[in-house]
């Protein structure tokens, strides 16, 4: 008996030793890695942890009356914050300034995820069941910087005019290894997020497939970046690569979606308004006081309703609540911009941008209780305005002055299928 006991103890000890060795090896491969810093590039946006919306819950924004006035005694209406959303339905990049091109802010909605069904690729957004996890996918825009110590004109990063770095929460594997990873993440010794990069623009020699991707009633040709998606991203978004449940598209500069409904004409501004993967228009504007009005009405369900839920490009302060409903043309920073129509809201803002959780009712319920104001779509609520720039390229900056040039009536025109015309137009 003593001999058998010692033999079993020895076997146990060897097994324990092997397990410990494997565990140590596993942990060595899962410890923190260095963040991606694309060669010869700099990151666009505000420094991490800073935001021009840090005071968004301050009661002063509820009234819409600013504390300061310009030199003529008029209210100082201005740009409060700027956001670009390079990857549709994912986290935004907050900016201090942005180039504006015909499709909107320079990098806005140039990328989108899509899934394959009914023999075609269809975009995937926060609206889709199970895709509320997109809220925690975070893109970073990196552009070439000739002053960088590692700048090389021949590098892949420079040749593609920069890269998009995409990060997302790490999913721990099953079993004891997964438990160890969770402990490591809790102790901050393992990476909590995964990341990879894709070219901002496809290099000349690239062979990315060009295929149609369906967005609402349009099917523009776009570049399929699916081969660049890591397995861990498929795992996070619970997609099966074999079933073509997920790919990444990059908008093609030669196949943007032209805008006709509610928009100024080519004769008006010298070019046909167009956009990439934005829902319908190049730029989305929100007014701080309008948002605070909505937030106060659904505070019973969401005490701190962030304006970021509504994913606007331009957030302005100064005007009173819903003053923007009747704007037709505005000037921002001295550039004329058309306010084409009101923003008709869906349930997408029900997703919390910080957690990815979807509220079952709010703020959609509150909005529909009093903001179904447009005769063009009486079943849905409106909040914010859709904009079309009056010239091809200019720069927007936080702090830019806002002036209203023209007001009038708005009536939303619903999205049409290709070739379909608005009655009477």
Question: Can you tell me about this structure?
Answer:
It is built from eight helices and 22 strands. It is of the alpha+beta class. It has one domain. It has an eight-stranded mixed sheet. A five-stranded mixed barrel has the order 6-7-11-12-13. The radius of gyration is 25 Å and the shape is globular. The protein starts with a helix and ends in an 18-residue tail after the last strand.
Feature tags:
single chain; 425 residues; alpha+beta; eight-stranded mixed β-sheet; 8 helices; 27% strand; globular; Pyrv_Knase-like_insert_dom_sf; MOSC domain-containing protein; MoCF_Sase_C
Major sheet attributes: 8 strands, mixed
The neighbouring-strand order within the major sheet is: 3-2-17-16-20-19-18-22
Number of separate domains:
1
What is the succession of H and E elements?
Answer: HEHEEEEEEEHEHEEEHEEHEEHEEEHEEE
Bulk shape = globular
Residue-averaged pLDDT, rounded?
A: 89
Give the structural class: alpha+beta
Roughly what fraction of the amino acids lie in strands?
A: 25-35%
The amount of helix comes to: 10-25%
Query: Low-confidence spans: pLDDT under 50, at least 5 residues?
Result: 420-425
How large is the radius of gyration? 25 Å
Number of helices, counting only DSSP H or I runs of 4 residues or more: 8
Determine the N-to-C terminus distance.
Answer: 97 Å
Number of strands: 22
Protein name: MOSC domain-containing protein
GO molecular function: catalytic activity; molybdenum ion binding; pyridoxal phosphate binding
Organism: Penicillium olsonii
Domain MOSC: 257-405
